[in-house]
Every structure is written in C-alpha cells, then in structure tokens.
C-alpha cells in the first residue's frame, strides 16, 4: 500500500498544477502563438491572422502572434505544434491538409487523429474550375468533350504537391476518369500567371485566389465545386460540377484550430469558447466573406464534431491520393 502513495501523490500534485495553469490561462504577459504551416500571405495565413484578431478580445485582450512554418505539405508546422508544450499557448490553424497528410506525406512524424486536441472548425472555402482565357470550350459540357479529344495533351496546373489546387485536381481527374498532365508550381501566384498567359490549360483553386481573376476576365470560369451555386455576384451564374454531371462531387478547403495533445480540459474549453465568439464576430465574418469563405455556424465548431469531420476527410482522400501515387516529402 505504501508503494502506491508516491505515484498517487505525484498524480495529485500534477492535477493541482494543471488546475492552477488552467485557472490562470491565458496569462496577460504570455502571448499565444498560432502556427500556420504555409507561407505568409497565402489564404491559410490570412485566415489565421483574422482569427487571431477576433480571438484576442474573448481571451482578455492578450497578444496572439502568427508563426509561419511552411514545408512538406503542411506537416512541418503541424509537427511543431504536435511537439509543443501542451499548455494552450501554441495552436495550429490548418486546412484540408489535416485530412490528406496521413496518406500524402511519407514518414509523417505525428498522428493526425491522436496527437492533437481538436478545438473546432473555422470556415469553408469553395473552389472554382478555371481555364486559360484562350481556351476553346465555352462551358463545362464543352470542356469535358474537349478534354476527351485531347487526352494526354491537357495541362492541369496547381500550387504544389499537397496544395488545395493539387487536391482538387486529383479529385477532378478521379471523377472524370481521365489523366491530365499535372504541372506543380511553387505557389498559386506563378501558377495563375502561367494560366493567364496560356502556358497551362486548367486549374482548380480556391475562390480566395480566383474570384478577382474571374471578375477581371483574365481567366475563363467553368464551374464551382460546392453542392449549391454561390451567391457571390461574379460567381452566381456558374453551375456546380454536381449539377453538370459529376454526381456527389464536392470539395471545399476548410480550416480548423488545434492544440497539442494533453492540453488541460479547462484550457481547451476556454479556447473553444473564444473560437465560437470569434466565429460570430461581424468584422471576422465580413473579412472571411471578402476572401470568398463561409464561416462555420454548425456543430463542427465543437471539438467532437470537428474531429469526426476530419476523420471522414481522411477516409475520403486516402484512396484518391494512393491511386494518384503522389507524395509530399
């Protein structure tokens, strides 16, 4: 019996320390860091910076900084958070990559489903299928016919392995049962430049990157990847891929908030409550709408539903990535 006292005493002491940390969280003099696993200036970075500002007030006005740790399909930044102290001061904002990394990244140094605490979803970002301005087809139906007649000659650009545009392109080829020549770039900007210039034929990318180009008629828009048409004035007349014949085709680039595994429950509760306040902030909603994003208003803002959603995404993308045989090293 005496041998049990030390372990029990240690456990009790740990519980007291953890409880004290949770009660004091967040400390006024200790900033929270949100890690973004992509370069500064991109869509995920902008979402994280808007969220940081919106979460400051419900967390007592503390400082929240953004740290960009890009590379390896988003796994470098994610690993940084997975290995961080589980005290609530290091968080992760990641996109659909949380659903694809388990298959896409070789020798991934963490487990998506068990090395993080899920705090809640942030938004959904629709995608658009666009082409070079000189492309012959006038609509999606004509485009499918044109792709069929030019097998092996169609160039499909993306922003790099593991990027949103890469994933959308994989799903599109899988749904159409055709192979296109995939052309990866180091970011959306150079890919868009070549699309506008006619060096590549097609790209499937987020509305955050394509809306302004569509409005300026610098690219030709064919369809959106949501199940319902968008309400954005410049995109409202675009058909969905599903209504155009690709049954059950839907892909949106979502973002979620995570903490290291083992973060105290009371700290997680405070972070989730702050997130839900931020998701209702009019200024945050307006900024997200300006990016073409839709702020989450359903149960996915809760940790359990967030995790359930990511698990479903892992199951959805795993066979597609494996079939494509592509990896982010």
TrEMBL record:
Name this protein carries in UniProt: Candidate extracytoplasmic binding receptor
One Pfam family matching this protein: TctC
SUPFAM superfamilies cross-referenced by the UniProt entry: Periplasmic binding protein-like II
Keywords assigned: Signal
Signal peptide region: 1-22
Protein origin, superkingdom: Bacteria
Claim: Methyltransferase is one of the keywords in the record: no
Similarity section: Belongs to the UPF0065 (bug) family.
Organism: Ramlibacter tataouinensis
Keyword Signal: yes
């Amino acid at each position: 019996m005496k041998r049990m006292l030390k372990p029990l005493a240690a456990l009790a002491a740990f519980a007291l320390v953890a409880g004290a940390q949770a009660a004091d969280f967040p400390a006024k003099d200790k900033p929270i860091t949100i890690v973004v696993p992509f370069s500064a200036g991109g869509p995920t970075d902008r979402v994280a910076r808007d969220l940081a500002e919106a979460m400051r007030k419900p967390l007592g006005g503390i400082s929240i900084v953004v740290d960009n740790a890009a590379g390896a399909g988003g796994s470098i930044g994610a690993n940084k958070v997975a290995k961080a102290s589980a005290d609530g001061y290091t968080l992760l904002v990641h996109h659909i990559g949380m659903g694809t990394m388990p298959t896409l990244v070789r020798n991934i140094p963490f487990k998506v489903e068990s090395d993080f605490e899920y705090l809640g979803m942030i938004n959904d970002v629709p995608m658009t299928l666009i082409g070079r301005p000189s492309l012959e087809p006038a609509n999606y139906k004509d485009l499918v016919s044109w792709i069929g007649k030019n097998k092996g000659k169609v160039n499909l650009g993306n922003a790099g392995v593991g990027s949103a545009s890469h994933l959308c392109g994989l799903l599109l080829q899988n749904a159409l049962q055709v192979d296109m020549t995939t052309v990866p770039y180091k970011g959306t900007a150079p890919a868009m430049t070549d699309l506008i210039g006619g060096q590549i034929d097609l790209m499937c990318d987020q509305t955050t990157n394509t809306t302004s180009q569509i409005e300026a008629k610098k690219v030709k828009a064919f369809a959106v990847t949501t199940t319902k048409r968008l309400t954005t004035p410049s995109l409202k007349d675009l058909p969905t891929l599903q209504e155009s014949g690709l049954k059950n085709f839907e892909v949106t680039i979502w973002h979620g908030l995570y903490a290291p595994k083992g973060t105290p429950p009371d700290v997680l509760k405070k972070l989730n409550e702050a997130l839900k306040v931020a998701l209702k902030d009019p200024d945050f909603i307006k900024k997200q709408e300006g990016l073409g994003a839709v702020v989450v208003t359903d149960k996915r803002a809760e940790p359990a539903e967030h995790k359930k959603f990511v698990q479903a995404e892992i199951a959805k993308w795993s066979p597609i990535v494996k079939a494509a045989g592509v990896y982010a090293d």
